[in-house]
Design a protein that fits this description.
Oligomer: single chain
Largest sheet: 2 strands, antiparallel
Helix content: 25-40%
Strand content: 5-15%
Number of helices: 7
Length: 231
Amino acid sequence: MADTSPQGRGAVRRALKELKDAGYYRVDTVRMPNGTVRSEAHVFDTPKPAPVVPHPAAGERATGRTVTPSVKDPEEVPTLPAQLTQADEQTRRAVAALFRAIRPEPRLRLGEAEALQLAPLVAQWLKRGSSAAELADALLSDLPQPIHSPTAIIRSRLQRKMPPAQAAPPPPAQAECAKCHDPVPQPGICRPCAGLGGTRTLAIGIGAAATPDGVARARAALRGHGLFTAA
């Protein structure tokens, strides 16, 4: 990586150390069945604590052998931390989306507990149709210098920049019979007008609202033709 990077070995070494300290990167020493030892690098989407290596108890001699932590099959997908495993699917999706959004910015490193606290806000963003790019832009653009509390900044931006809730779609337009103008389930003519039998549905209970408007329009039309005079 250092040979192909213009930053040099020192910068790459510091970047890997930051990732390791945050739990995103780990190098394990593995003893093979034939006795050889090799190093394996593991990169995780969510922070993962380093494995606990046992140490000799008080009064015991060290064996002199290299104690190596157990390593999963390299083809196996890293498991989620315990708290995320117990969370519901919506929370897990929100935490994963949050970690993906802030991944390019190392100053916004979060722990598992902090991500779980912010998950409800992220879930609202996803429920309102926000894309991963929109979420990342809201969290990463124009960050202050320096950043003292990544959790506070992310929470503030999630709250202040929350997109509006999507409006419910308008109800479908009511179709009318082409002859009698009664409501029908689809454009065309109703069964009575088509001679297929059936009874007409009378609109009940709307006369009180429609009568004053109809009377006013009739008076206006009569006045326009000089056929109406007030009593």
